[in-house]
Specification:
The chain has helices at residues 25-34, 51-62, 88-93, 100-108, 127-135, 167-177, 193-204, 236-248, 264-272, 312-319, 340-345, 375-387, 397-400, 407-413, and strands spanning 5-10, 16-20, 41-45, 66-70, 73-77, 85-86, 110-114, 139-143, 146-150, 159-161, 183-187, 208-210, 216-220, 229-231, 252-256, 275-280, 284-289, 299-300, 325-329, 349-353, 356-360, 369-371, 391-395, 417-422. With 424 residues, it is α/β, with parallel strands linked by helices. The strands form 6 sheets. A 4-stranded mixed beta sheet has the order 22-23-1-24. A 4-stranded mixed beta sheet has the order 2-15-17-16. A 4-stranded mixed beta sheet has the order 4-5-3-14, with helices on one face. Helix 1 (25-34) runs parallel beside helix 2 (51-62), helix 4 runs parallel beside helix 6 (167-177) and helix 6 (167-177) packs parallel to helix 7 (193-204). The relative contact order is 0.16. The structure holds uridine-diphosphate-N-acetylglucosamine. Uridine-diphosphate-N-acetylglucosamine (UD1) binds next to helix 1, helix 5 and helix 6.
Amino acid sequence: MDSRQKLVISGGRRIEGELAVQGAKNSVLVLLSAAVLAHGESILHNCPQLTDVDAACRILSCLGCRCVRSGGTICVDASTAAGFEIPESLMREMRSSIMFLGSVLGRTGRCRLSFPGGCELGARPIDLHLAALRQMGAEITEQHGYIECTAASGLHGARITLSFPSVGATENILLAAVTADGTTEIHNAAREPEICDLAAFLVKCGARISGAGGSVITIEGVERLYPAEHSVMPDRIVAGTYLCCAAATGGELILSRCKSEDMTAFLAVLESMGCRAYSYGDGKLYFDAQRRLTAPPTIRTMPYPGFPTDIQAPIMAVTTLARGTSVFVETIFDNRYRHVPELVRLGASIKAEGRVAVVEGVRSLSGAKVHAAELRGGAALVTAALAAEGTSEISGVCYIDRGYDSIENVLRSVGADIKRVTEK
Ligand code: UD1
């Protein structure tokens, strides 16, 4: 990661044109983890070029897998995956490395990793992951910042009820359950589309899973998994971010490789603000926005199919210019308004306290030097800077690179004046 890089944006240009949506970060990371379970070489297509994906490939190498990337395709040969330890440096690099817990435990009967701890979004506990794995027969000790899991005689199926539909916990349970002895039921499971993508890949590998996408998932453990070929689903958050860029600039976009049915709650908000969106053909979405939008009804982030927390920051950037007052209630993460003071530097009028933020729409934003403190907050700053008058400089680009594949090239292709510069 190069912390000296900046994005320099001259705002005020309409975003218009056509672009293809990249593969989903939150899907590819867990699919790479799932590949550990398959005895042989799995092939994943449509993998985005992201620093988090590079980190996941390094973890795979540490675990004894051979991982080769060629363009958007990553081949993972897990024939010799005998490693069970993820070094602390890699755990620090990417919090989602906790996603390797279920698959490594399932494959080797053991897993040792350092506690992921907090991240840019505040405390991110993993108590639900650990409690579920314990129910499945894992012995877990937490000492000196390390988690040591063992299932010497293998994992067994269990009936697990999550107190909250955690995405990561649901994924870890799925990964651990596919080769466990007997049947596992996950109640109050997360319903995010990425869970369906993971289940689809695991089923191709020979797993027996039903109910993914619903609140109850049933997994019948099988002896072993075999490698498979799979194409990573489109990234609904990235698609949503580029629509926000178009919305903030009164633009017009056609997205291809887009699954608009995964974006219903988000598209409903944009439509309520005065945008038009319709899907057609094979994975295409047409979108246009009026010059001045109106504030939407209260936006409350919720587990899927509710409004996604990951798109809260980019849509807030759009509401800064909308006519009227917009209200946000963030119910998923504690510390997800770090973009607010930076949007204010760009001329927005926002008050945030606790879980609520209130935005009074202004007529214009003006360019400023701002800092991205995390991934989606960074995307919100890009969105606002595209709509602002004058030039903005956004630092903290390394966070944006965790989730957006060449953001500056994509946006330049649809009319933005944006470049990446490295400070001497
Ligand atoms: C995933 C996504 C992230 C998204 C989030 C919510 C990946 C790699 N990341 O994160 O982009 O913002 O879903 O849609 O897929 N919690 C607990 N205990 C646990 C687990 C979670 O209290 O054991 C809490 C978290 O602190 C948080 C909430 O549950 O407040 C949601 O977390 P979760 O759904 O687990 O999100 P992640 O899987 O971490």
